[in-house]
Amino acid sequence: MAVLAALMFVTAGASAGLLEKELTGADFTRQLAEIRLALKAPAAGVQDKALNMNQVSDLLRDSDPAVRKAAIKGSRLLINNTKIYERVMFIMENDGERLDVRVEAARALSYAVQYPKVQEALARTIKYGSAPVELNVMA
User: What is the pLDDT averaged over residues 113-131?
Assistant: First the structure.
């Protein structure tokens, strides 16, 4: 709100020819500092959009497959956490899970392939061939 008021003041002052008179010296410096401060401050009600580990873990257990799939996509930044990649491995290996969710799980696990458990899970998926073709290709 302060930014809007300051910008309106500057605009009104410029159009009235008062810009040089009103915004000289200390006034200008003070208002410029207020504008910069207001621009750096987050807007009211805006929160960080990134999910933390506990939130992702809860969403991976959700009953809705679309929510689980979205949680898997969102887990890529946290996939190096044991709790997260083990849950994603469980989803990938679960034959009762929807295929698109399992494929997304295999895709996410490719970001954690440095862990032996993940390598083994992906290898099992490919080796035994019981998984659908789409999942084998992704794994």
Answer: 82
Contacts of 35 by beta carbon, 8 Å cutoff, 6+ apart = 2, 3, 6, 7
Full domain range(s) for residue 83: 53-138
Q: Does the pTM of the predicted model rise above 0.70?
A: no
User: What amino acid is encoded at 80 in this protein?
Assistant: N
Alpha-carbon gap, residue 87 to 97, rounded angstroms: 13
**CATH code at position 95:** 1.25.10
End-to-end CA distance of the chain: 51
Q: Which of 27-36, 37-46, 66-75, 130-139 has the highest mean pLDDT?
A: 66-75
Residue pair 135/121 in contact by the 8 Å Cβ criterion: no
Same domain? 101 vs 35? no
Q: Are residues 28 and 83 in the same domain?
A: no
